[in-house]
Each structure stands twice: as structure tokens, then as C-alpha cells.
Specification:
heterodimer, A: OB fold (Dihydrolipoamide Acetyltransferase, E2P), 5 helices, 11 strands, B: Four Helix Bundle (Hemerythrin (Met), subunit A), Alpha-Beta Plaits, 5 domains, five-stranded mixed beta sheet, 22 strands, 48% helix
């Protein structure tokens, strides 16, 4: 009985990353990022500013001895900046070999979005939503799924 | 051909060993070519190198490498027999062997990357065979002589056994102890201490794994001439591990056992092998091999990642140490004993750091050696005569630096060869010596390594450079305002290449800007000096250590900035308003002892909000780098601290923070991050 249970858990662990997303929110909108990219979530640490970077790159933090740049997702999405509170989180993602922290208003939880996934309405792509891969609905809430590669496309380009 | 998984652990050793051997080979070849002769030692050495590569690559199942090595080995085998044949093939031989060595290097590189090696070397092999044929063919009688000697071969091994003092011991290894050939070799090197001369059957057991079975079956026969008593040697044999038993053979039985083995070995190769391999090679080669081994025993090779890890750990240790000593809990306490112990700890961590740094140091010889090769090849292709002079090759730099500057130096040497050094005719017309000279020099000056690449070629022409820069739209101010030195600096700009045509060697779109970038990547600077018709000198300055610097901490607004102490000349406060001069552009300058220095306000430069904007309240630091001096203005001096430099995350690379005067960041004792100011680029800002 017990054995059976562990095998199912193991299987789940294997697919675990696939099709599951971390959902965070900014104001009233919910966004999902594939769990595959995420290394951890931390509360806001002191951020050291670096001159002459794009406004949405807030600076660097000391993540357990590693220096990691942080991006304010509000600013990246061209929204108003607001002071950080105790709900504010930094989601650390690993894209390629680069570690980047994303500052979001708060984290909702982890959801399996595979089954409920809908493709992106074709006109949405034109409407400037260039970071999204698809839109899902869970419990009546609309979740905009971020395509990590598109999201960082500009930042990953060299020069 | 993918490699056998069981071989994988050995792959790294194979690559390392082969590369070392090939480098040795290049060195020998170039040296010999210069002196136009091959000494007996060199021929033996090349033979040995090729033999080892052949054996190990055959073991790793890289057949291409092994056949090529075999072909070279054959050629040098003939040379070893009859050195006088060199004259009939000399030039061609050096060319083809160097080419083969390049081929082997690139094959080993591809092994390293893909674990495969499958390029075709048949052209080179054919050429080698042709050379071998020339050497053999031209001297039919000489070739016949060894053949005639062959029948004698069977007696030959007995002959060296006969002279006074030679003794023979047959050794059997424990069953199943494996690698009998290597064990036999180790035994030989152990015995080397006790014997004047040493020989074995089979000779050179280490080079051929297939000898294992032979050794298991027939035992390993050691012939030696003891320096002391025979007992000493026997004791040494007893002390060796994995030996089942041994017997001291009388000379009569020795003959009997030796002779059946010799033809067996000879059958594998040409009949001449037996005659040559046993008496000549073995006796002359076993000693240097044994001696070399003795010297090597004090060295071990360590995986570089382990060294990096150690370096990181020492870095962490330095950080933690300042975390403990500067702990805020201790503030305001009178702790004499604690301070004393803390100083002791600091001394030890400093020492530890020095030792770790020294472990990563490698001499520049390797890099310089490669340039020899390039100069030689280019001389031939370009029909120029150039001597490469190297100085200070024993200067040591960090391994990462050593790797990083190899390409830039090569590029500069190529540039000098291609563009600077004139053809012999032109040189004579100019009254210069016929052959040009490129000097590669390295020396350790203070905390920096200074490497210069100097040629005595045509020199840079400032007018030509300015004209070219104008064509490419690279000028930032009126032409007349450029000093010569600034004009020289133009060639380091991206998109600048003065050569009209793209040649095989330089000007392939990677110009001096790439060179400069690569040097800057390791924290170095590049400067150029030149005089028409006298020559050009490139000077590279690289900090000795990259990882840990003594820093001065400055506060600006909420942030903490670190400036390397070596770049600070002095710090002072402005007491007199007359010291500050503002010119018509609003540029502030500080007058000090009759000299004017531009003033950089860090808070303005980095756009940091701060309360300290009055020059009287803050602190001024005079910084210098190279020949440039300026003053920077910060809120406050916080103190001195040793910091571990961390590069900015790769994510921020495209913003070129270095150009803004920031070279990296560091984590301070309290876990906060400080940005590191780079005096050199700060001074370039104006």
C-alpha cells in the first residue's frame, strides 16, 4: 500500500515540473510562470542599485552569496511602481545559465494548468501582449501564462 | 567512433598527457630546426614521444592518431639508426612533422570536445612514408647493414649481459595485480637509484599495454649494473609491491631466456628493431626516463575546478573573517585579546590566500613558446626574416589570465609580422638589419604583470590612422586635436583595420579591438607606443590577482563603493574654496600644489541621491591609473577592507558597466553588496 503511494508520488515528481505553473499576481491580474524555470521564492532583500540600467532592472541582491539581478515585473509591464510590502516576493528564475529575480506583488500558489489551457486569442498577440504564451482559467480566474523566453528576450540578447 | 565508456575516466589523462608531449615535441622541433640539426637526444626524445602517443591513442582506440604517430615514429626510427640521413630530407621533414603535430593537437582538441577523432591523416602519412623511403632508399647498403646485422640480433642481447658487473633478475608479478607493464616500469624507476645502468626485456614496458601478457607469461627481465652491492638491488626489488617472486639469473641461463624473447619482439616490427631497441635505446633511454620520473614525483596534477573551488572557499573565508572581526555585536567593546587573535587569524588567511594564489600560477613560457611557432610559420609564408626574442618567460600569472592572454598576444605578434616588419629588401634599403626582431617580454612590476610585444618594423603612421578613422567615422573631435598617442589608440576601436587587404594571418575582421576586449576581460589594460621606422611597442598591464583586492570603502548616498587601494594616491578634504576651479563648461577642477585635476562627483556620475553635495562636507580622493590622475568626490570614507571581487551577473553584461567605472561587485562582511569602482575606466570617462 505504502509502496504504491510512493511510486505515484515519484511519478508525480517526475512530471511535476511539466505543465505546472507558479501563479503570482500584480494588482488584480494573475500570471503564471512554468515551474521548470523557478529555483526559489524569497521575501524582498535589500536591493543595491546600479546606475544607468533600464528602469525595470532594480539592481542586484545577495542571494546566499550569489549576486543576482532583480527585475520589477510591474515596471517591465509598464505599470505604476508601488512600495514593497510584506506580500511582495522575489521569484528567482533560472533562464539559460542566468539567474534573475522577479519582483511581484505576491504569489498565489502552484497550479496544474495543462488541462485548462487555452490557446492565446490570435489578436492578443498583436495587442502588445508579447510576453504571453497562453491564457488559462481556474476557478473563474483568468491566468495569463508568461513565456519565459519571450519575457527575457530583450535582456538575453547580447549588445 | 564513440569512445568506450570504460575508457572515459582515462580520457582526461590521455588528453593532458598528449598535449604535454606535443608541446614538448614542438619545442624540440623548433630548436632543432634553428640549429639545423637533430641531436641524438632529440631524435630519441621525439621517438619516445611518438611512441607514447601511439601506444596511448591505440589504447583509447583513436586509430587515426595512432597510425600517424606510428608513421612519425618510423621516420625517426630510421634517423636514430643513421642520423646522417637527416640531411636529405631536413626541411621537408620538419614541415611535415610540425604539420602532423598540429593535426594531432586539433584531433586531441576534438577528442576533448566530442570524444571523437576521425579526421583523415593519410596525406601526411603518405608524405612521411615517402620521406622514410627516401632515407631508406638512398642508402641501400646502409639499410642492408642493419639487415645483415639482424641475424646477429639474437646474440646481441647476450653481449651487453656479458660485460663485467651486469646482473640479471627475472621478476614475476602477483597474479591478477593488473597493469603489469606499468608496474614493471615503476620497478625500473625504483631500481634506478641503486644501479649505474639499467635495462630490461621487454624494453620500455610502460609504453605498450599489450606487453602485460608477455610479462605475465615470461616474467620481467631486469638487467642492471649495480652501483653498490647486488644485495641492495635485491632488497629494493623485495620492497616493491605486488611482486610474487624473483630470481637472480646466472649468465648462462640469462642467455637462454633472453634469446627466445628477442625474436618474438622482433617479429612484431622489422628485423632491425631487435638490434636497435635492446642495446641502444634501452640503455640510453631508461636512465633519462627514470630520472625524469624522480623529478616528477614531487608534482601532482589537480583538476582545475578543485583549485577554483579552493579559491572560492578562501574568498568566503576572507569575507567571513571580516564578518566576525567587524561584527556589530562587538562595537564599543574593549577586547584586547580578541583583537590580538583576530590579527593572528588575518595573518593566516592572508598567507593561505597567497599559497592558493601561487598554486594557480603558471609561467608564461607556454604562451611564448607558441609564438615561436607562429613566427616560424609566418616567416616562411610571408618571406620575411624575423627573430623572436623572449624575455621573462618564467614570469608567473594566474592560470585564467594565462589562458586569456594567449590569443591577444598571438594576434599582436601576427599583426607585427604581417604589417609592421618589412621585407628583407625594404629593410636593407632602410638601413636596418636584414632580419626583423620581435621582442616578447614579461616582467613583474609591483602588483602588475607587464607584458610587452615590441617590433622594429615600420611603426604606426598617425596621419594614416587619422585618415582611416575619418573614413570610418570614428573621430570624436577635430583631427588636429589628436595627439600621436591618441591616434595610436584609434586602432583599438571596433571597426578599425588599417590593412587594405585581408590576409591569411591578420585582418580577418577581428582587430585590435578584440585584443583589447580580451585583455580588459581579465582586468588588464593595453597601450601602444610607436615611432615611424623605429617600431611599435604594445604594452599589456594585467593585475597579478583578480580575485581579492585591498579596497577602500566609500559611502555615497545609501550605497557603499569600493576602490582598490593601489589606485588611490591620497585623500583629503577641501578646506579652501579657492582650490576649486569651475571652467566655462561647468567642469569642476581641483587645484593642488600648482596642478589642476578634474573632479568627478560620484553622486552625480551615478545619479545617487545624497545629502552630501557640498565639497566641504565630503571627501576627495585623488586616483591614478597609468599616467592619468583625477579626483573623485564621495560622501565619506568608511575604511579599509579586503574584498573578493565578483563579476556582475552575466545578465547585465550588455549594459557595459565597466565603461561607467564599475568593474564588479563584492559581498561585504554584513552581507550587503558593494560596487567596485575601477579607477582606470573612471579616468577614461573624461
Amino acid at each position: 500500500m505504502n509502496d504504491e503511494l510512493t511510486t505515484t508520488v515519484d511519478q508525480e515528481n517526475q512530471d511535476d515540473l511539466h505543465g505546472r505553473s507558479l501563479v503570482f499576481y500584480i494588482d488584480d491580474s494573475f500570471y503564471g510562470i512554468e515551474l521548470y524555470y523557478i529555483t526559489d521564492i524569497i521575501s524582498v532583500l535589500p536591493i543595491i542599485q546600479i546606475p544607468s540600467l533600464p528602469h525595470y532592472i532594480k539592481g542586484i541582491i545577495n542571494l546566499r552569496g550569489k549576486v543576482v539581478p532583480v527585475i520589477d515585473v510591474r515596471l517591465k509591464f509598464n505599470q505604476e511602481e508601488r512600495p514593497y510590502d510584506d506580500k511582495t516576493c522575489i521569484i528567482n528564475v533560472l533562464i539559460g545559465e542566468m539567474q534573475v529575480g522577479l519582483i511581484v506583488d505576491g504569489v498565489e500558489g502552484v497550479f496544474t494548468l495543462r488541462d485548462s489551457q487555452n490557446s492565446l486569442p490570435s489578436d492578443a498577440a498583436k495587442n502588445g501582449e508579447r510576453y504571453l504564451s497562453s491564457i488559462s482559467k481556474i476557478d473563474g480566474r483568468v491566468i495569463l501564462n508568461i513565456d519565459c523566453n519571450k519575457f527575457f528576450q530583450n535582456d538575453l540578447q547580447l549588445y | 567512433m564513440a569512445i568506450d565508456p570504460s575508457m572515459e575516466p582515462m580520457l582526461e589523462t590521455f588528453i593532458y598527457e598528449s598535449n604535454t608531449l606535443l608541446e614538448q615535441l614542438d619545442e624540440i622541433l623548433l630548436e632543432s630546426e634553428k640549429s639545423k640539426s637533430l641531436s641524438e637526444d632529440h631524435v630519441n626524445e621525439i621517438f619516445r614521444i611518438m611512441h607514447t602517443i601511439k601506444g596511448s591513442s591505440a589504447m583509447m582506440e583513436f586509430n587515426g592518431i595512432s597510425t600517424l604517430a606510428h608513421a612519425i615514429e618510423d621516420v625517426f626510427f630510421i634517423l636514430r639508426e643513421s642520423p646522417e640521413k637527416l640531411s636529405c630530407v631536413s626541411e621537408a621533414l620538419f614541415d611535415v612533422v610540425l604539420e602532423a603535430s598540429d593535426f594531432l593537437k586539433s584531433e586531441i582538441e576534438s577528442v576533448q570536445e566530442t570524444s571523437e577523432a576521425n579526421r583523415d591523416a593519410s596525406a601526411m602519412i603518405a608524405e612521411l612514408k615517402r620521406l622514410a623511403a627516401i632515407m631508406r632508399g638512398e642508402t641501400q647498403d646502409a639499410a642492408a647493414a642493419p639487415a645483415a646485422a639482424a641475424p646477429k640480433a639474437e646474440e646481441a642481447p647476450a653481449v651487453p649481459a656479458a660485460p663485467e658487473g651486469w646482473r640479471q633478475v627475472k621478476v614475476f608479478f602477483e597474479e591478477g595485480c593488473q597493469m603489469e607493464n606499468i608496474r614493471a616500469f615503476m620497478l625500473m624507476s625504483q631500481l634506478n637509484d641503486w644501479c649505474d645502468e639499467l635495462d630490461s626485456v621487454p624494453p620500455h614496458p610502460e609504453s605498450d599495454a599489450s606487453l602485460c601478457s608477455e610479462i605475465i607469461k615470461n616474467g620481467f627481465l631486469v638487467k642492471f649494473k649495480p652501483s653498490g652491492s647486488v644485495e641492495d638491488v635485491l632488497k629494493a626489488i623485495e620492497a616493491a609491491v605486488n611482486i610474487k617472486n624473483y630470481e637472480l639469473l646466472e649468465e648462462e641461463t640469462a642467455k637462454a631466456t633472453a634469446s627466445p624473447e628477442q625474436p618474438a619482439k622482433a617479429a612484431g616490427q622489422t628485423s632491425t628493431t631487435a638490434a636497435a631497441a635492446a642495446p641502444v635505446a634501452a640503455s640510453s633511454n631508461a636512465t633519462p626516463a627514470g630520472g625524469g620520473n624522480k623529478a616528477k614525483q614531487s608534482l601532482i596534477s589537480v583538476n582545475q575546478t578543485k583549485l577554483d573551488q579552493l579559491m572560492d572557499l578562501v574568498g568566503e573565508l576572507v569575507t567571513t573573517e571580516s564578518m566576525v572581526v567587524g561584527n556589530s555585536d562587538l562595537k564599543g567593546l574593549q577586547l584586547d585579546n580578541f583583537q590580538k587573535s583576530a590579527r593572528e587569524l588575518r595573518k593566516l588567511t592572508d598567507e593561505l590566500q597567497d599559497v592558493v594564489m601561487s598554486m594557480r600560477m603558471v609561467p608564461l613560457n607556454g604562451v611564448f613558446q607558441r609564438m615561436n611557432r607562429i613566427v616560424r610559420d609566418m616567416c616562411k609564408k610571408l618571406d620575411k626574416q624575423v627573430d623572436l626574442v623572449t624575455e621573462g618567460g618564467d614570469t608567473e600569472v594566474d592560470k585564467t589570465i594565462n589562458e586569456a592572454i594567449g590569443d591577444p598576444i598571438m594576434h599582436m605578434v601576427r599583426n607585427s609580422m604581417d604589417h609592421a616588419i618589412e621585407s628583407p629588401e625594404e629593410r636593407i634599403a632602410l638601413g636596418k638589419p636584414e632580419s626583423g626582431k620581435i621582442t616578447l617580454a614579461a616582467k613583474n612590476v609591483g602588483g602588475e604583470i607587464v607584458i610587452t610585444v615590441a617590433d622594429d618594423g615600420c611603426g604606426l603612421n598617425p596621419e594614416k590612422l587619422l585618415k582611416k578613422a575619418r573614413e570610418n567615422g570614428l573621430l570624436t573631435k577635430p583631427e588636429s586635436e589628436y595627439t600621436d598617442k591618441e591616434a595610436f589608440g584609434l586602432i583599438m576601436l571596433p571597426g578599425f583595420s588599417t590593412n587594405q587587404e585581408v590576409t591569411e594571418f591578420s585582418g580577418r575582421g577581428v582587430g585590435m579591438d578584440v585584443v583589447r576586449k580580451n585583455i580588459e576581460k581579465v582586468g588588464g589594460t593595453l597601450s601602444i607606443d610607436s615611432a615611424k621606422d623605429v617600431g611599435t611597442t604594445f604594452t599589456i598591464k594585467i593585475p597579478l590577482t583578480l580575485a581579492i583586492v585591498d579596497g577602500m570603502e566609500l559611502a555615497v548616498g545609501d550605497g557603499i563603493y569600493t576602490l582598490a587601494i593601489t589606485s588611490i594616491k591620497q585623500s583629503f578634504k577641501v578646506t579652501d574654496d579657492r582650490q576649486v576651479i569651475v571652467d566655462t563648461d561647468g567642469t569642476e577642477m581641483i587645484m593642488m600644489r600648482g596642478e589642476c585635476y578634474p573632479l568627478l562627483r560620484l553622486h552625480r556620475l551615478f545619479n545617487i541621491p545624497t545629502k552630501v553635495t557640498d565639497l566641504h562636507d565630503g571627501i576627495i580622493m585623488q586616483i591614478e591609473s597609468g599616467d592619468k590622475v583625477a579626483c573623485i568626490f564621495a560622501d565619506e570614507l568608511l575604511g579599509e577592507q579586503q574584498v573578493v571581487v565578483k563579476p556582475f551577473p552575466a545578465f547585465l553584461n550588455k549594459y557595459e558597466l565597466k565603461k561607467l567605472g564599475l568593474s564588479g561587485c563584492t559581498i561585504l562582511g554584513d552581507g550587503s553588496i558593494s560596487l567596485i569602482l575601477d579607477a582606470n575606466s573612471l579616468l577614461d570617462l573624461q
